[in-house]
């Protein structure tokens, strides 16, 4: 957007003159009788000329070709989309290969915002390197600069995460988050299924289309565990006949 505004702001005077001729500017003079326009005579609209000039100006901007827009923005930088790749099955039926290959921790030895990062380096860096020998770890001191962690992956992608004012637990969480990723968070994952009429009620759950009072019950509930039969079963019919025979004998 900054390039777009810079392009319009830096339009030369010649392009402005193509919209409006400075030779046609109304010269300065005293108030004329046009203030009495419509008083005792027919009213003549003075905005007609201004309307024509404004329409010519907007027509010039609206008719900009697509090539000029592409010069401001590269459409190749739009976030791409893809399906889930097989790297999510890494380690299933084969040896696990960690996608994170290099971890660079940038920290200041004196700055206050690097306190949590320095504490993590002093207490947990050695154990982390022992548990993950396949990850190369670099500690890069930077004087009076905010702390960062940069992860580099097998795919060539890099992730940069700021660690300013993060405590030890948050730093540990972010580093393990980089460890479990594959380096392409900019991809939009596409679903394997498609429907022309998506459901408005969301994903199906066992409580879909069920009474709301079931959420307030205490489980296991005898009323819900009993099987509901649409018709009387053979066992129930035999029991009913047996009860009727007992009543007949007593009477």
Automatic annotation (TrEMBL):
Key words, A-Z: Mitochondrion, Ribonucleoprotein, Ribosomal protein
One cellular component (GO) term of this entry: mitochondrial large ribosomal subunit
InterPro entries cross-referenced by the UniProt entry: Ribosomal_mL43, Ribosomal_mL43/mS25/NADH_DH, Thioredoxin-like_sf
GO biological process: mitochondrial translation
Chain ranges of the Ribosomal protein/NADH dehydrogenase domain: 109-182
Residues in the signal sequence: none
Keyword Mitochondrion: yes
UniProt main location, coarse: mitochondrion
SUPFAM superfamilies on file: Thioredoxin-like
Top-level division of the source organism's lineage: Eukaryota
Cell compartments where the protein resides: Mitochondrion
Coiled-coil segments on the chain, per record: none
GO MF, one annotated term: structural constituent of ribosome
Similarity remark: Belongs to the mitochondrion-specific ribosomal protein mL43 family.
Name of the protein in question: Large ribosomal subunit protein mL43
